Amino acid sequence: MEGLFQMFQKKIKTSKLLALLALMGTQTFANDLFQGQSGEIISIPAAAQETSDVLTFKTSAGTKQLVSLPFVKQDVVITRHHVNVKVNWVNFGESRITIADESKVTLSKEDQARANKEAIEIKSALSNSSTEITPSFDFVAPVPGIVTSPFGKQRFVNGLPRSAHLALDLRGSVGTPIVAPLKGKVVLIGDYFYTGLTLILDHGHGLFSSYAHMSGIKVKLGDLVEQSNEIGLVGATGRVTGPHLHWTVYFDGNKVNPESLIQDGYLSSIL
After folding, report:
1. Residue 18 CA to chain centroid, in angstroms?
2. What pTM value is reported for the model?
3. Domain end call among 46, 72, 88
4. Cα–Cα nearest to 199, from 216, 174, 175
5. What is the sign, positive or negative, of the torsion defined by CA atoms of 125, 127, 133, 139?
């Protein structure tokens, strides 16, 4: 009986030691300060207990998890998942545009109600991402046009400050084909007050992309499209100053800079 009691005590001590080591590992991650730029994606050591919706990649340095950083207006330290991150402010500059139709700037009660309802609809489409699609992050540009308005610029509309431009505007004439930058599923199609004819693709594991101001859509809700498949046409619908593609990318709950994603070797550069 004494031998069994000693073995039991030894098991308890071993269990306590393992629990302490696990806790120390968690605290090490929490106390390490990672950092990255506003509106970008970084990699961090994957959590000990991974969930199916978290996107991870195996590297020579261990399993890494991709994490998005929010747009910020000053340097700030935040907690993202299980780590602390310093998000570095970036001076993206400013953009001043003039919209002739004042009703698109100062909204009537009816238009404001419509815009609010549409915002809820878009948010709902972004709330549930597939785990059956694993994004490669090997993006291609959706149109070949040059960048006319980069990500992050502080906007002034008719002289009044508005929210920052958390998307990428690409030049294109009306009717220019738009292609899927990655494989994805069509989860939203609509004609909205601000963004006009709009489409959203779910690329899986919390990665979405949105295409706004289109003149035509070439896919249906629920379609699974492959990379480089045509999904729509550049247009000038909604609140615009001219034809272009307004391309927004969402990952891990934040809008991120699409211009970074289309750089060669992007994924390997952040892992």
Report:
1. 37
2. 0.86
3. 88
4. 216
5. positive
